[in-house]
Amino acid sequence: MDRWLGIGGFITGVVGLVLTVYYARKAEELNLMRKRLEWPDLQAAANDLGRRIKTEFPPTAIIAPGVAADRIRAASVAVTRVACRNHKSPEYYWWLANSDDFFFPWGKAR
């Protein structure tokens, strides 16, 4: 009886060790795929977007009620591929995300 308990404990330990290594590597791969947007990224995005908007579409006013709809433009720091495919993305964006699983400095994107 003690021998079978020892063998069962050994097999459980080996399986547990193998699964721990496997899931640790899997978690590391997922962490590498995840993008974090830090404050320097947001500052660079603001500079790049501002420069791009000024060269491609010099706005006459930032907020102008009553302006025709074809003159209104939108900008964003991050856009998902789903939004681009569905034609729901803004005209100007800094970073194209593969998924919506990314983090701003203040929390997860929604």
Strand and helix order: HHEHEEE
How far apart the termini lie comes to: 55 Å
How many H/I helices?
Answer: 3
Give Rg in angstroms: 25 Å
Q: Quick one: biggest sheet?
A: 2 strands, parallel
Low-confidence stretches: none
Quantity of strands, as a count: 4
Anisotropy-based shape: rod-shaped
Give the % helix.
40-55%
Q: Which structural class should the secondary elements be placed in?
A: alpha+beta
**Overall pLDDT metric:** 77
Strand order of the largest sheet: 1-2
How much of the sequence is in beta strands? 5-15%
Structural account:
- The chain has 110 residues and is α+β, with helices and mostly antiparallel strands.
- Helices cover 50% and strands 15% of the residues.
- The strands form two sheets. Strands 1-2 form a two-stranded parallel ribbon.
- It is rod-shaped.
Structure in a nutshell:
This protein is an alpha+beta fold and about 110 residues long. Helix content is about 50%, strand content about 15%.
